[in-house]
Amino acid sequence: MCVSLAMEIVTRLADVLPTLAEHLFIVSCEEAVEAAEPYITNCHKGRHLDVAAHSLEKEHALIAVHINVAGRDGLMILDPGYHVARAVTVMKDLCYPHTGWFTQSDEPHCRREYCYTFSTHSGNFVEWAERTTRGSNVNHELALIYVERPYRTAIDVTVRRNLVYNFRSLLARDAKGRVCAGLYFPVVPGSDAQFTLFYDGVNNTSVKVKVKFSSFNRDSTKHPETLVGHLNNLAKQLRMEFEELLELLNDLADVAADQDFVQQTLAINDTITEMSADN
């Protein structure tokens, strides 16, 4: 999860650069914001963000540090939760070393680009713009990062919110931060629930396979050779033992088969989504 990844980075930096780590702080992020101005106006009712807290979702967390370059203020942002493989520089004047637009991922079917800028509506927020291109279709998303104060309730709010999120993933990155292997799935009711596994194949290819959770049964140790081959390759790139990955998939299959639990999880997720729909 993004919160644990952020805490892990701060902890590791503290071991090698304790002076820098003292200035790092976790910040909160609201995703899928329809428009920046009304959201920020809502947050500025009263004197503090706390006034609007009951209607905010805060489903993401990042790391920030204030910087000053020749008298010019800015922020440096680290976002391990979204696998951003760089430190993003956000200058208030948009001048060097401001990062601006960059390509986050570029796959044959989809290119995703990010840009972080201080909001023109309030210096307390950074606007995170996402541009996704699939063929001739271009989609834009906006998220708002609150940078005025450290995020003190990341575990109590963001971690709890993500526990009932309707999409789950386990991913591995290479040395450059590229997502190279993993598995992911939507949480859906019914017996046809499935997950997608993917990993790097030979000759710079990517292997992607959809597998039904019903394929896994603790009472059976037999699986098709093709599936076993995929799981072996995936386990290596996830840096897991084959038996460990198989046990994880058996656990997930048990959860997917528990329809009462799935329905309850989706109901809670829907309630949270409806609560924050006006942000």
Structure, briefly:
By secondary structure, this protein is α+β, with helices and mostly antiparallel strands. It has helices spanning 2-16, 18-21, 36-43, 154-163, 225-237, 242-257, 259-275, and strands at residues 25-30, 60-69, 72-78, 88-91, 102-107, 110-118, 125-134, 137-146, 167-173, 179-186, 194-200, 206-212.
Structure characteristics:
Putative secreted protein; 2 domains; globular; alpha+beta; four-stranded antiparallel sheet; 279 residues
Model description:
This protein is 30% helix and 33% strand. With 279 residues, the protein is of the alpha+beta class. Strand 11 and strand 12 form a beta hairpin. Helix 5 (225-237) crosses helix 6. The mean pLDDT is 91. This is Putative secreted protein.
How much is the average pLDDT? Answer: 91
Strand content: 25-35%
Series of H and E elements: HHEHEEEEEEEHEEEEHHH
Number of domains: 2
| Main beta sheet strand tally, sense and closure | 8 strands, antiparallel
Number of strands: 12
- Shape type: globular
Q: Provide the structure class.
A: alpha+beta
Radius of gyration: 21 Å
Q: Termini separation (Å)?
A: 23 Å
Sheet with most strands: strand arrangement: 4-3-2-1-8-7-6-5
Low-confidence stretches: none
Proportion of residues in helical segments: 25-40%
Helical segment count: 7
Write the topology of this structure.
Blueprint: H1 2-16, H2 18-21, E1 25-30, H3 36-43, E2 60-69, E3 72-78, E4 88-91, E5 102-107, E6 110-118, E7 125-134, E8 137-146, H4 154-163, E9 167-173, E10 179-186, E11 194-200, E12 206-212, H5 225-237, H6 242-257, H7 259-275
Antiparallel strand pairs: 1-2, 1-8, 2-3, 3-4, 5-6, 6-7, 7-8, 9-10, 10-11, 11-12
